[in-house]
Amino acid sequence: MRHFGHIAPEVRKRLFHQEPCEFTADSPARLLAAALGATLYSPATRPRLADDIVRQAARGVVSMVLCLEDSIDDADVEAGEENLVRHLADLDSRPGADLPLLFVRVRTPEQIPDLTRRLGPAVRLLSGFVLPKFTEERGMPFLEALADAETVTGRRLFAMPVLESPELLYRESRVAALEGIYRAVDKYRDRVLALRLGVTDFCSSYGLRRGPDMTAYDVQIVASVIADVVNMLGRADGTGFTVTGPVWEYFRVQERMFKPQLRQSPFLEGQAVQLRQTLIEHAMDGLLREISLDRANGLLGKTCIHPSHVLPVHALSVVSHEEFSDAQDILRPERGGGGVLRSAYTNKMNEVKPHRAWAERTLLRAEAFGVANEDTGFVELLAAGLTD
Predict the structure, then answer these.
(1) How do residues 65-99 score in pLDDT, each as one tens digit?
(2) Which of 137, 150, 257, 360 maximizes the CB count within 10 A of its CB?
(3) How far apart are CA 251 and CA 249, in angstroms?
(4) Structural domains for the chain
(5) Could you tell me the pTM of the whole model?
(6) What DSSP string runs through 22-74?
């Protein structure tokens, strides 16, 4: 699989200075964590689940979560498990089917060995499990069950803990909770692919819900949690983990209180005017702003609940030619001693030592999502994906 692989090769050649790399479920964890992109959640109870997975892969989705937790009713868990096992067996019988990275969001640790046993040979389709309401106390049994399932199946299985518990939100318990989470995930570091933020649960603790004109960063109590999670769990010194962005809940807006957040100037040519209007009508201007803020705050990738959110996440994850140029300059071997240099675009200072970690992360993102041509921006990437 590869990002933008659903777009014709000749179009990719026009859009990209460096095309996204190809990768598989067996690729190195560092690359997979960077390449998760828009992780699309789907209830495991969907009656045409196997077909849905194949269809979304053909539309550019590279990671999906089949959910047995909050997205389905408590009474439907057993039926959801049966449906999941049946449809993954169906997919396993389809030779050559292009599939995304598949994860199952479970409710209890016991579901992990039970599902891997029931899946039989189809377990090869799974990349791992999403672990809900993760704390040190509640999370360790999940990680232990995952390690046991790996031993039994002989397959590499990743964990993606979801940070969404009230202990993380409440000021008096936050630091202790984060320290405990770090101890748990550090012990199983090789198996933890990414940490996911459950912002909807954070908001629910205070009876809040952000509107389509607001981002998670406008809700100050949520923004403070994100900052502390990145501070303690997302460091670039080798001790941190990939932390993914929060879910965007909206996919169509009937009425607005504030002006749209997309400037007109990038959308003035050809069909781009209509593209801007479509994005605004479907609340994508708020999503695009939140994606930009995610990256500015150290998050990579995003939880998505609607297929229309996937392309914007991926388009804004592509490395610009200017970013790529700066990152390459900073990491040149002859710059090992540090120093300051003017960027090739002659519009900023690149300070070698302070910007090194940013440059390394940028080149990893470039490997996963590609580098845009000099004359290609997110508008062109969006338009190409929407018209393909």
Answers:
(1) 999 999 999 999 999 999 999 999 999 999 888 99
(2) 150
(3) 7
(4) 1-20+318-388 (no CATH), 22-317 (3.20.20.60)
(5) 0.91
(6) P--TTS-HHHHHHH--EEEEEETT-TTHHHHHHHHHHTT--EEEEESSTTS-G
